[in-house]
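Minimal example, chain plus guanosine-5'-monophosphate.
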Amino acid sequence: MATIFSRIVAGEIPCYKVAENDEFFAFLDINPVAMGHTLVIPKQEIDYIFDIDDALLGRMMAFAKRVAKAQEAVIPCKRVGVAVMGLEVPHAHIHLIPIQKESDMYFGGKKLTLTQEEFADVAAKIAAAF
Ligand code: 5GP
C-alpha cells in the first residue's frame, strides 16, 4: 500500500507544495513547529533514510539545500534547522525548519495553528524563491 506521502505526491491527498523535481518533492508539514516547516521526501518509497543509496541521498540533500536557501530568503530566521526522525510516517523525510533559536526545533510542544491562507501564502513564497 502506498504511503501517505506517496499519495500526496500522486495528488490523491492535498498538500501545500513547495518544490518538486523528478526524484524529490517538498511540501509544508501539516503540523508545523515553526513557520515554513517543510518536509523533503524522495518520490521513491524508502522507509529509512539511511537505507537510501549514497548517490540518491546526496542528491536529496542537495535538493533540501535548495529548499532551505529559498526558506532563508523569505522567512526571517537565523538558520534552517534539519531533523530526521521518521517514527510516524514510514517514508523517508527531512524536516527543514526555519529557526531563530534552538527551542524552535522542539517537536514535543504545541504546534503552530495556521489558516489555509497562511499555509498557502508561505508555500507560495518559498516556491517562488526556489
Ligand atoms: P516523523 O515521521 O518525522 O516523526 O513525523 C512525520 C511528520 O509528517 C510530522 O511532522 C507530521 O506532522 C507530518 N505529517 C504526517 N502526515 C502528514 C500529512 O498527511 N500531510 C503533511 N503535510 N504532513 C504530514
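The radius of gyration is 14 Å. Helices lie at 4-9, 54-74, 116-129.
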